[in-house]
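Incident log, support desk, overnight shift.

02:14 A customer reports that sequence design results differ from what the structure should imply. Their input is reproduced verbatim below. On-call engineer (initials T.W.) acknowledged and began investigating.
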């Protein structure tokens, strides 16, 4: 194992650190010549596969499936079949006593959380924005649709565009103040 002297990253091999890129010092050592043992048998062919003659053992029972069945199908007398009989006379319809597990709808809905909420990751409490000011994660809040009111002359309203994600007005080429999406440049 190699341990990087800069960042202490442990890796199995390599000439540079996988984390910080520090090049490890290399020492060139000549490999000593390997002497062949005279009593070892050398491989008669170099690389590749060679055909091997492997006859089957006569006392070995072959249990693999053959291409065609060699025995007729037999019926087991004690086997209980699960086939059902004809069901033409069975009554069909809904089950009156079936409990679906749902209460009847009363039309009352839980209101969406508005106002100051706590971030579920860092517990930072914040009143506005879709992203947490502390950790940057998305806040658990429902977005209220804001009505865009343009006042003044046409020259004052020019240069603003709606964000493609949350439809909040913003300047082209900048990030949205609410969701952080990049607003496209005007052509």
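02:41 Re-run completed on a clean worker. Output:
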């Amino acid at each position: 194992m190699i341990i990087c002297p800069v960042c202490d990253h442990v890796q199995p091999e390599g000439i540079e650190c996988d984390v910080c890129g520090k090049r490890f010092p290399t020492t060139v050592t000549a490999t000593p010549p390997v002497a062949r043992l005279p009593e070892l048998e050398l491989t008669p062919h170099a690389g590749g596969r060679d055909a091997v003659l492997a006859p089957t053992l006569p006392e070995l029972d072959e249990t693999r499936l053959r291409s065609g069945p060699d025995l007729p199908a037999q019926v087991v007398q004690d086997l209980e079949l699960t086939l059902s009989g004809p069901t033409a006379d069975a009554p069909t319809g809904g089950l009156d006593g079936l409990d679906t597990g749902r209460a009847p709808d009363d039309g009352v809905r839980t209101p969406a959380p508005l106002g100051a909420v706590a971030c579920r990751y860092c517990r930072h409490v914040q009143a506005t924005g879709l992203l947490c000011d502390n950790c940057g994660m998305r806040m658990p809040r429902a977005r209220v649709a804001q009505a865009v009111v343009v006042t003044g002359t046409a020259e004052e309203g020019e240069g603003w565009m709606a964000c493609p994600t949350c439809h909040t007005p913003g300047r082209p080429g900048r990030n949205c103040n609410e969701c952080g999406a990049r607003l496209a440049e005007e052509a």
